[in-house]
Amino acid sequence: MLNGKTPLGKYLQRILIIAVAIYLVFRLRQTVQLLLTSLFLAGAITPIIEQMTNFRIKVKQWEIGLNRIWAVSLLYLFLLIVIVLAIAPAPQIIQELGQFFIKLPNLLEQIQLPKSGIANFSQDQLNHILQTQPLIDQAQNFGKDIVSQTFVFTLQVVNAIGVGVLSMLLAAYMVVHSDSLLRRCLRPFSKQIRQEVEILIPPITRCLGAYVVGRVGTSSLLGFCTYLTLSICGIPYAGALGLLVAIANLVPYIGGLMALAAIFIAAWGVDFNRGAIALFICFALQQIEAFILQPWLVAPYLNLDPFELLLSIIVGAELFGVVGAIIAPPIAGTSRILFKHFAVSTTNTDNE
Question: Has residue 20 been placed in a domain?
Fold first, then answer.
């Protein structure tokens, strides 16, 4: 008979455990997804919580600081205020975005191209590119769907917020009790594996935290600044274009260019001077975000050179579309950290 002590018995036991684990993950995929989201969020906010807890104010002979519970509470209070301010105008902005896509053909017709053409393209060729019917039809249909389902979209946003709040609560528990949870999770493993995990957690959490703050935070700030700029310059669809910039900027390289093209189309029918100023300011804001804020907040922790970043975006977009393009960089950055760590460990072992 086969038992767990023979090599074949151990092999079959491992196969059985893996099969049961895969079955449970499939059956409980929503719970697993919630836990993974919470784990990602916990890793993202951990560096911020550490900075808050390490901050001390000296008052005479006392030092006043925050523990993890108060730090998480203050951070979540700030996020709650931001979410409420963002959700309040959401239905109007979503409807405005739908109207922009519906009226896209009319906006394109207003663009007067030079008769001599641009960059070896004649005026007719440029008009043909701008008025490609399948693309325009898709944009109009997308806009009609947004307008007709504004209430549905709002409910989906509220539902997503509900799931997000639950994820935030789980993430808060993970951050506050991270030490005890880590000890419990690593207890069945060997001492060497526990040491490896403890070494890897800080750089991975810094990578995730830098990406969330650096990409999501700066993209939201960029969208808001774009909205203010377009509103001051009197460009129509300012709210919708600000939202479009904030979302599109999450996709490096390509997203910013697409958002600028949309701003150019909306600004063309306005006074030329105001439209040119608005477009220039929006372009300058994107450059500040890309070449000052991103290298400062993200680049030191993401551990990816420009080629690797672009390759990760292409692969993520190919596998999972826009969502894949957004989540691919932190996954690639985490993979790079793991690869470098184990490559160095293997090299050191071989040298010994």
Answer: no
What's the structural domain count of the chain? Answer: 2
Domain boundary among 133, 154, 176: 176
Asked, for residue 182, whether it belongs to a domain, the answer is no
pTM flag (> 0.85): no
**What is the residue range of 165's domain?**
29-176
- Give the span between the Cα atoms of 69 and 73, in whole angstroms: 6
Tell me the longest C-alpha to C-alpha distance in the chain. Answer: 87
pLDDT tens, residue by residue, 45-64: 888 888 888 877 776 667 67
In a domain, 8, yes or no: no
The residue out of 155, 176, 197 marking a domain boundary is: 176
The contacts of residue 241 (CB under 8 Å, 6+ apart) are 100, 226, 227, 230, 235, 259, 262, 263, 266
Amino acid at residue number 346? T
**Contact by Cβ (8 Å): 316, 328:** yes
Which tokens hold the place of 63? 């030092």
Q: What is the pLDDT of residues 186-235, one digit of tens each?
A: 887 788 888 888 888 888 888 877 787 778 888 888 999 999 999 999 88
